[in-house]
Specification:
single chain; 966 residues; alpha+beta; Beta-Lactamase; 6 domains; 7-stranded mixed beta sheet; 5-stranded antiparallel beta sheet; 24% strand; disordered C terminus; His_kinase_dom; PAS-like_dom_sf; EC 2.7.13.3; phosphoprotein; PAS-assoc_C
């Protein structure tokens, strides 16, 4: 704003001074300088109250500051008819002088006060009656001034009271306003009211004009009613839509308020006093609390457990329907302390005592006691409760659950009953195993972890193939009585172990060729229950559970079975032979957002297999190494450290993942994630035992290792086949081009030369469509596999292989039964030739084997099945007795040291049921008194070769063939 003060007031005889909102003097006319005794240079820029100070909190100071404050607050002119104010004279004396002042606001463009123009007159002489005109006028003027002083003083006091009232009004926690007249004009509002309606200026405006957004909401009409009737009105939680400005969105508030009539001296209602509280936050909180409580009750009603709530003093006040269904009580019967009606009398006192202590201390409640069912029986429950606390930490109540633990309690009782003898038996058995397998453990122990490449397995398996093939051929020509026979058997065992190590290394490196089938784990693992129970022992409880709608997955069945067996044996060892092994399979979906928890996993659908034990757990410092090859926490010689590395490699090669959760002292859970398959489940037919079958076909043998080729040639010739040989694929192609006839291509995968085995196979399949191809290799890399899986239709025989396995695979690929191979009784070579050693027997009469060592049991059963016998397996004497009671068997083969009865006691029990049953004691003991006492028994000392086992079986069975038990 532009104006010329000097032109307007510079020569005026009345004193004028201009101050800003800080009371800084920025202009003064000559009259002002003269009356104050100041010069322009000393005055301009100074704060008025500093240049002309009055004692703090004096009437002078209060009146001056109050006037300026009113101008700045209202933007209206303020008058001080008479104000006493001291001023310092030029000679330094303080003079008490009387003034009359007018303070006029100068407003800026936005309507705010930017300057205050003070017109001040010195009326000291007039006040003191020193300046007179006529004698008669002095008393009248003096009386007028004194009256003005009295009024000013009263106005000052009234202003102070008004300011105090306004301050209290503004600081009140509730909103307040005073409305006047029939139009309900706003006279006074406090800050809380201004905040509620969005900071609008209301003073002097009728309510309908000031708050048009309240139209149609009933507030105007209620004000009219109070003014007309003179009766107050009050409301709770009334909604009000308030629109702070024309361009703002309406906001819903909830208010508690009262309209109280204001009356004049004649008791006539002249206005309305409005007072209330904005309770919007409270309403929102109440609605949120109601919704939260409803969600809790819905959730609690859907939970499988009992759920209940209690007040802060511990009295029950709500239970879900499942609790009522279980106990048979109706709503209200268990409220307060009546919950004890459902508790077993023997458990109530301690349960109530602990509950009272938890309530008193505000601590979590956890206790086990029996709760009565509706039928009167009791089941154990774990009862937990936690305090509910407000934002300030105040206990407002309790929420609790009852979880049925009856099965756990039963298991604990059973474990307690077995505990004394179990530890003794486990210690004894571990000692026996330590003594029996010390040499084997030492040979399996590796000295260090190296960088083992898959190519090493190829050369290693080729060497093993040469060794195993020649050992089998030598064994055929070696009499059973020869000392060399035992050495050959030992060498064959070492070859088998070497092949296993190579296979496990390939699995960890994800180079093991897999032949996946679409399976359903619930049915697949259900068929392995017996072997798992045998592997973990009688003292480990096995619990399996599978989702009803479990998805299919595509995995190699043989490797899948090895994985589960490996994990079961590891769990058994971690639990030291006692505990609970849980196997659970369910469906799960890994999303992109949750994939961070499972590295290297693609988002998608998976079947999750969980294997959980209750063992000692794994320390945090070794968990990161648990899947490394050759890393083991077992004692020296008790493991190679390749089991879990094989599991890891298998899962990754199958497109899945493995995780490990473990807590020291609480057990371990290993989770295997396998990709979901949308294909139909394959029908997995069990392999049928058969003798050693050869053939008269011609086989094209392709192998670049001369020693391996020579060994394979001899094995094939020994089986009756005609053999064409080629040192590599290029030579084999010449045979194909020469049109030489052959019935099967048997080729190594990894060979030197320009032509690969895959190229050779494609040429044969293209030019001779009816000729099958059988690949063999100890390390296939990516020649015939994609992402670790064999291509569809590809047949592979892994190195090293035995003659028996070779014979079976050839007949499988050729698709005919083949020709039985008979050899003299003196040959050996392990399982490879077991079939030819078997004398004709009645295969409808099964042989019963009772052996608690799963590895020995499996080995014995496989040997007899390959020889053409039917076999029943039992891991304990109790199971063997059940089989004897329900099934006719031709021969009993039993260990002496069994976990329940001894083998001798088992034999006596068997003879009670069938006096003519022949028995073979397969044991490390040399003295078995029951063998001579019972008769028709033989003792087969451990360790023994397969040929010796078959010889004993042949000598025992002819006495019993075709004879049924009495």
């Amino acid at each position: 704003m532009q104006f010329d003060l000097d032109a307007l007031f510079g020569s005026a005889p009345s004193p004028y001074v201009l101050v800003d909102p800080d009371l800084r003097m920025i202009w003064a006319n000559d009259a002002y300088l003269e009356v104050t005794g100041r010069t322009r240079e000393t005055l301009i820029g100074r704060i008025m109250t500093e240049e002309f100070p009055a004692p703090p909190d004096s009437i002078s100071d209060q009146m001056l500051r109050g006037s300026f404050r009113r101008v700045l607050a209202t933007g209206r002119t303020d008058h001080l008819p008479l104000i006493p104010y001291p001023i310092e004279a030029p000679d330094g004396r303080i003079e008490e002088r009387q003034w009359s002042a007018t303070h006029t606001p100068i407003l800026g463009d936005e309507g705010k006060v930017v300057y205050i123009l003070q017109n001040t007159m010195d009326v000291t002489d007039l006040y003191r009656s020193e300046a007179t005109t006529t004698p008669s006028s002095v008393p009248r003027r003096a009386a007028l001034l004194q009256r003005a002083e009295a009024i000013a003083t009263e106005n000052l006091a009234l202003g102070a009271m008004t300011e105090f009232f306004q301050s209290a009004f503004d600081q009140a926690p509730s909103f307040m306003a005073i409305l006047d007249g029939p139009e309900h004009v706003f006279r006074i509002t406090n800050q809380a009211y201004i905040d509620l309606i969005g900071g609008r200026d209301l003073i002097g405006m009728p309510v309908r004009e000031a708050l048009p957004d309240l139209a149609g909401q009933g507030f105007y009409e209620l004000l009219d009613q109070v003014l007309e009737t003179g009766e107050p009105l009050s409301f709770k939680g009334m909604p009000a839509l308030i629109q702070a400005s024309s361009d703002a969105e309406p906001v819903e508030h909830f208010i508690d308020f009262i309209y109280h009539p204001l009356r004049d001296a004649a008791n006539k209602t002249t206005g309305v006093f409005v007072q209330g509280h904005d309770v919007t936050g409270q309403k929102i909180a109440e609605a949120t609390l109601t919704a939260t409580r409803e969600r809790f009750r819905i959730m609690a009603q859907t939970m499988p457990n009992h759920v209940w709530t209690a007040d802060k003093d511990g009295g029950l006040n709500w239970l879900n329907d499942r609790t009522y269904d279980y106990t048979g009580h109706v709503e209200g019967e268990l409220y307060g302390t009546d919950w004890g009606r459902a508790v077993h009398p023997d458990d109530l006192e301690l349960a109530a005592e602990k509950w009272q202590k938890s309530v008193a201390q505000g601590e979590t409640y956890e206790h086990e006691f029996r709760i009565r069912r509706a039928d009167g029986s009791y089941r154990w429950h774990l009862v937990r409760a936690s305090a509910l606390r407000s934002d300030e930490g105040v206990n407002t109540g309790w929420v609790g659950t009852n979880t049925d633990i009856e099965e756990r309690k039963s298991a604990e009782r059973e474990i307690a009953e077995l505990n004394d003898t179990l530890e003794m038996r486990v210690a004894k058995r571990n000692q026996e195993l330590e003594e029996l397998h010390v040499t084997l453990r030492q040979s399996q122990k590796m000295e260090a972890i190296g960088n083992l490449a898959g190519g090493i397995a190829h050369d290693f398996n080729n060497l093993l193939q040469v060794i195993t093939g020649n050992l089998q051929l030598v064994a055929r020509e070696t009499p059973d009585a020869s000392p060399a026979k035992a050495r050959i058997e030992q060498a064959m065992g070492s070859v088998a172990r070497g092949a296993t190590l190579a296979s496990q290394l390939l699995s960890f490196a994800r180079k093991q060729p897999l032949a996946p089938k679409v399976i359903n784990l619930s049915r697949f693992l259900g068929n392995t229950t017996d072997i798992l129970r045998s592997a973990i022992g009688e003292s480990v409880a096995l619990e399996t559970s599978f989702a009803e709608d479990l998805w299919n997955t595509s995995v190699d069945p043989s490797n899948m079975e090895n994985v589960v067996l490996n994990l079961a044996i590891n769990a058994r060892d971690a639990m030291e032979g006692r505990g609970t092994l849980k196997i659970h399979a369910t469906n799960t979906t890994i999303s992109a957002s949750s994939g961070w928890a499972l590295p290297d996993m693609q988002p998608g659908d998976y079947v999750r297999l969980e294997v959980t034990d209750t063992g000692s757990g794994i320390a945090p410092d070794i968990r990161d190494h648990i899947f490394e090859p050759f890393f083991t926490t077992k004692k020296d010689g008790q493991g190679t450290g390749l089991g879990l590395s094989m599991v890891y490699g298998f899962a990754k090669q199958s497109g899945g993942h493995v995780t490990l959760d473990s807590e020291v002292g609480a057990g371990t859970t290993i989770k295997i994630y396998l990709p979901r398959s949308h294909e139909q489940e394959h029908d997995l037919q069990p392999a049928q035992p058969a003798g050693l079958m050869g053939g008269a076909e011609t086989i094209l043998l392709v192998e670049d290792d001369a020693e391996v080729r020579a060994t394979a040639h001899d094995l094939l010739i020994d089986l009756g086949y005609t053999v064409l040989e080629a040192a590599n694929a290029d030579e084999a192609l010449e045979i194909v081009k020469a049109d030489q006839a052959f019935d099967l291509l048997f080729t190594d995968v990894m060979m030197a030369g320009h032509t690969t085995a895959r190229d050779l196979a494609q040429v044969v399949q293209r030019t001779r469509p009816g000729v099958p191809v059988l690949f063999t290799s100890g390390y296939v890399q990516d020649a015939i596999v994609h992402e670790g899986r064999l291509e569809a239709g590809v047949q592979l025989l892994g190195k090293p292989y035995t003659q028996s396995v070779l014979a079976q695979k050839l007949r499988e690929v050729l698709g005919t039964a083949g020709i039985p191979q008979q050899h003299h009784a003196g040959h050996g070579g392990g399982h490879a030739d077991a079939a030819s050693d078997a004398a004709p027997v009645d295969t409808n009469a099964p042989i019963l084997i009772c052996e608690d060592d799963i590895l020995i049991l499996t080995d014995l059963a496989d040997t007899l099945r390959l020889a053409g016998y039917q076999v029943q397996e039992a891991g304990s004497a109790a199971k063997a007795i059940k089989i004897l009671q329900s099934t006719a068997v031709s021969l009993l083969i039993t260990d002496v040291g069994l976990p329940d009865l001894s083998g001798e006691d088992l034999a006596r029990e068997a003879r009670q049921m069938n006096p003519r049953l022949p028995v073979i004691f397969a044991t490390g003991d040399t003295d078995v008194p029951a063998a001579s006492a019972l008769g028709n028994c033989k003792v087969l000392g451990k360790p023994f070769q397969d040929s010796k086992l078959l010889e004993y079986v042949r000598t025992m069975l002819p006495q019993y063939a075709g004879v049924q038990p009495d």
